[in-house]
Amino acid sequence: MKKLVYLFAVVLLFSCNSKEKKAENKKEIAQSEELRTDLYGSWVGDFIIAERDESKPEKERYRNTINIVIKKITSTEVIGQSIVAGNNRPLKGVMTKRGDTYHFTLKEPGDDKNDGVFNFDVVNDTLISGIWKAYNPKKEVTKRKFELVKKEFKYDPNVMLPNEDLYVDFENPKEEKISSPSNEENTAEDTLSNEEDENYSSTLYRMASQEIFKINSSTQKLEESDVKNLKKLDLEILRNTIYARHGLSFKTRTVRQFFDGVEWYIPISTNVADKLTKIEQQNIVLLKRFEKYAEDNYHTFGR
Q1: What domains are there in the chain, each with its CATH number?
Q2: Neighbours of 217 (CB within 10 A)
Q3: Which of 102, 114, 128 is nearest to 43 (CA)?
Q4: Prediction pTM value
Q5: Nearest C-alpha neighbor of 239 from the set 261, 222, 263, 257
Q6: Residue 64 near residue 44 (C-beta atoms within 8 A)
Q7: pLDDT, tens digit, 9 for 90 and up, residues 39-90
Q8: Cβ–Cβ under 8 Å, residues 130 and 50
Q9: Spatial distance between the Cα atoms of 44 and 218, rounded to a whole number of angstroms
C-alpha cells in the first residue's frame, strides 16, 4: 500500500512539473513571437530642434535627416537602430498599445555623448510622430521632434540632386571688408566723418555651378578634362553624391546641408566603402586629387 501511495505521488509530481514546463514553454513562445512585422524597416524624415541652450555656440544643425530602423517587435521587447548625423546607434525598448495607437519607447545605450531616448506613436500605420530627449541635460540640443514615413532604401546610381535650388555653402561663410569710394566733392573733414559709414563688411558664401546637375559621378568614368575647371565645391558635391546614393550618414554639417531633405536620400550606414563600384572608387580618387588645388568663387546671399 505504501508503495502505491509513493508511486502515485511521484506520478502526480511528474505530471505537475510537466504542466508547468509546458506553460513556461508556451509563455516563452508567446513572448518571442514577433508582432507587427509590417512596421519593420526604415522610417525616414526630418529631425528638428525642439529645445536648445541658447547660451551655447550653435554647433548642431536645426534640421537633420534621421532614419529609425525597426528590426524586431515582440510583446516584451523592440529592437532597432537610429541613424542620423554620422551616428549609428542601437535601440532597445518596448511597444505598448493605446486604443488604435501603438506607442514606442526606444533607448540608445547611453555610452555616447549624443545618446537619448525616443518616444513616438505609429499613426494610421503610415507615420511615426514623436520626441527624442537627450540623456545629458547640458547638451546644446536637449530635445528634437520628428515625423517619419516608411521608406525602402534601394541603391540607384542614376539619381541626381534636384536642380530647383541653388547649392550654397551656408555653413562656411567668410567676411569681406568693402570700402566705398569717397565722393570727390566731399571735403577732407566730410571724408573723415563718413569713413565709418563707407567701410562695411559683407558675408560671402561658396556656390556650386550647374555642372553638379550635368555630371553623374556614379555612372560616368570621369577624366581630368571633365573636372579640371570645376569649383572646389562642385568637386566636393560630386564626390559626396556618390556616398549619398549608397546611404552614407554624413558626419559634417557642410555635407549634410546639401543632402538632408533630398527625397531619395536615406541614411542607412556610417560606412559604405565596401558598397562602392569600381567606377565610383576611381572617380573619388580623381575628385579628391583635384579638390586639393581647386578654388571657389564667393557670392553674397541672404539666408
Answers
A1: 37-151 (2.40.128.120), 168-299 (1.20.58.1690)
A2: 26
A3: 128
A4: 0.84
A5: 222
A6: no
A7: 999 999 999 999 999 999 999 999 999 999 999 999 999 999 999 999 999 9
A8: no
A9: 24
